[in-house]
Specification:
By secondary structure, the protein is of the alpha+beta class. It has three helices and ten strands. It has helices at 2-29, 109-124, 141-147; strands at residues 31-34, 37-40, 46-47, 55-59, 62-66, 75-76, 80-85, 89-94, 99-104, 135-139. It has a five-stranded antiparallel sheet. Strand 4 and strand 5 (62-66) form a beta hairpin. The longest helix has 28 residues, at 2-29. The chain is elongated.
């Protein structure tokens, strides 16, 4: 009878530990990190602390809270996650570089850039802090190379410091 109680006690301890381990796993699974982004409910990345809404992007200018841009990924491979695609532009998160890339696809690029910036602002929800985020704006590689042999130009967001005027391209 003493032996039976001992086995029951050991079984109860093992069951309790199993339940605790499962709860800990479920708690920490709900928030993940991709690059310097802390992402709520994003599968497949390293686990960090829990976040109830959106993403905290740890930039060199400090943390910036943005919308969870990974909720509606259009397509993904090892290098990029396409967040928005239109005839005039595409918006992607570049995983290895840990930045958002906007590619302007149709001329006049100034018009495509304005549309992309409006969509990007709505997508991120960062407001005035958008300029703190690592965002690069390019034209199509073939076009950029035609106008500037040897490489692409990062035009940046038109409302941020350091932006390059696209002009009539």
């Amino acid at each position: 009878m003493i032996i039976e109680k001992k086995y029951i006690l050991i079984g109860a301890i093992i069951l309790s530990l199993s339940v605790v381990l499962i709860l800990v796993y479920l708690f920490f699974r709900s928030t993940s990190t991709v690059g310097s982004l802390q992402v709520a409910n994003f599968e497949g990345a390293d686990v960090k602390e829990q976040s109830d809404s959106g993403i905290v992007w740890n930039t060199s200018s400090g943390p910036v809270r943005i919308n969870n841009i990974f909720e509606n990924i259009i397509r993904q491979d090892e290098e990029v996650m396409v967040l928005h695609s239109a005839t005039e532009f595409s918006i992607s998160y570049v995983i290895q570089g840990d930045f958002i890339e906007v590619i302007l696809l149709s001329q006049p690029y100034s018009g495509s850039r304005a549309k992309a910036e409006q969509v990007l602002g709505n997508l991120l929800g960062a407001g005035s802090e958008i300029c703190k985020l690592p965002i690069e704006v390019y034209t199509q590689t073939e076009i950029a190379d035609e106008f500037r042999p040897g490489g692409e130009i990062n035009y940046g967001l038109s409302t941020c410091p350091g932006a390059v005027n696209i002009g009539d391209l």
